[in-house]
Amino acid sequence: MVAPALSVVIPTRNAATRLPACLAAVAGGAGHFSAIQIVVADCGSSDATVSVARAAGAEIVQSVAGRGPQLRAAVAASRGEWLLALHADTVLGPDWGAVAAAFASDPTNRDRAGYGRLVFDDPSPWAQRIAASAGWRSRRFGLPYGDQGLLLAVDFYRKVGGYPDWRLMEDVALADRIGRHRLVALDFDAVTSADRYRRDGWLRRPLRNLACLALFRLGMEPDRISRFYEGGARSR
Which of 15, 57, 147, 151 could form a disulfide bond with 192, CB atoms 3.0-4.6 angstroms apart? Predict the structure, then answer.
């Protein structure tokens, strides 16, 4: 079964080291779709991110900094019937294409969204615990984060209002708009870099993420949360 055309949208900033593996994994699943387009929304990288993306056949759009604005810019340039939002430091498992294509080919999923299973590129017990907690959070509260990938039909994306124009919490906002009962755990790995956890601390990093979520739920403006977050980390 060949699924509809897919656009993979990836926000980037100085991602030249991690991006090649991400794009290679995307290419590995391309044969399951009638067509695949990769759109990289860059916000002024000073490394080789743009040339790496172009060499892999991606289309480049320029954007102001922030995952929300970058994802919106990438979606605006997309042509596929389905979208897959992906972080540049995430490498999809080898079976992602077959699983995603089966989901996209099922008409009953036109008003649902799928996400991958978070795995870190680190064998430590801390990494396994945090990944397991992300799976529980996603299932229990309908809150997959952006590093798990998000697959949904373009029409559905527009219907729920898409990503907000925020530097941070854009993934939580879209998950809220979709709703817990319309989010589906898909059976493929989203292997994400653990660099930021190794740098910031396996305990401190998730606590900061949790604090940002709590502040968001209490009504704090995303720009203020972003300033708090970036005081101790550069990106989630």
Answer: 147
